[in-house]
Design goal:
CATH class of the largest domain: Mainly Beta
Helix content: 10-25%
Radius of gyration: 28 Å
Order of helices and strands: EEEEEEEEEEEEEEEEEHEEHH
Number of domains: 2
Strand content: 25-35%
Strand order of the largest sheet: 1-2-3-4
CATH topology of the largest domain: Methylamine Dehydrogenase, Chain H
Largest sheet: 4 strands, antiparallel
Structural class: alpha+beta
Length: 267
């Protein structure tokens, strides 16, 4: 097999370069001389994640499709820590991405099964309040294209980025309680009655009819004719002000003509 580089990363101070090769090895190079310093052995499948520590130039993280996550000391060419992403009843999950926190005390990974894995020092109690299953209710909604070939949400006929903030649901589409809905950007300060989505019965691809979130506006919002978006309301308000100014200018010009002032000269 001809070796191919699948990923490359510099360490924090740029003294070393680490390359991931498709023969499952990681190679550490001197960035100034190009000299090969270490072969890092441990992965059993291709590696597409190399992440340097935010301030410790010795530390590099690697993760691959074999489900392995390694913390390396690249100056010594040794493993510091190893995690294996085993999923009960499903084997291992390939790790697709990893990032360190700014303080270097934690790192988060995402895998092929839709899991977010958080590793680090300290107590895990702050994370226990988060449900095990969290999806946006719009995650698997179908999209269509309009006559201009722009993408629209099929149900609402809106551009996805202009839709109101989505609701958090579990894997079956059931909405989470209101305290979790405030975790969605844009819903932090909403009243409880505005955090309860409309539910309806939707047919799945298997022909099964299930109850799911069907709308992003609540019944209360529809009854009270509230703006679905603060931004939309501001745009309408600015448009109204502009229309009023235009109307006032036209009235002023008309009254000037009637008083014999004629057409004003250009300055």
């Amino acid at each position: 097999m001809k070796p191919k580089v699948t990923m490359i990363a510099w360490n924090q101070n740029d003294n070393y370069v680490v390359t991931a090769v498709n023969n499952h090895l990681l190679k550490v190079w001197n960035s100034s001389t190009g000299q090969l310093l270490h072969d890092l052995v441990g992965h059993a499948d291709e590696v597409f994640v190399l992440e340097t520590h935010p301030f410790d130039s010795r530390i590099m993280l690697s993760a691959g499709h074999d489900g392995n996550i390694f913390i390396w000391d690249i100056t010594k060419g040794t493993k510091t820590k190893h995690y294996f992403n085993m999923i009960e009843g499903q084997g291992h999950g390939a790790v697709f991405d990893c990032k360190f926190s700014p303080d270097g005390q934690h790192f988060a990974c995402t895998d092929s099964h839709g899991h977010l894995l958080i590793f680090g020092f300290g107590c895990s109690r702050p994370y226990e309040k988060i449900p095990d299953q969290m999806f946006f209710h719009t995650d698997y909604r179908p999209l269509i294209r309009d006559s201009n070939n722009y993408v629209l949400d099929e149900q609402t006929q809106q551009a996805p980025h202009l839709m109101p903030p989505p609701f958090l649901v579990d894997v079956d589409g059931n909405p989470h309680p209101t305290k979790y809905q405030r975790l969605v950007p844009g819903r932090e300060n909403c009243a409880d009655e505005h955090l309860i989505p409309q539910l309806g019965y939707v047919a799945t691809s298997d022909g099964e009819v299930v109850e799911q979130v069907i709308g992003q506006q609540t019944v209360d919002q529809d009854d009270q004719s509230l703006e679905p978006s603060i931004l939309d309301g501001m745009i309408r308000q600015l448009q109204l002000q502009q229309d009023q100014r235009t109307g006032a200018d036209q009235e002023s010009a008309l009254s000037g003509v009637q008083n014999g002032e004629g057409t004003p000269r250009r300055g």
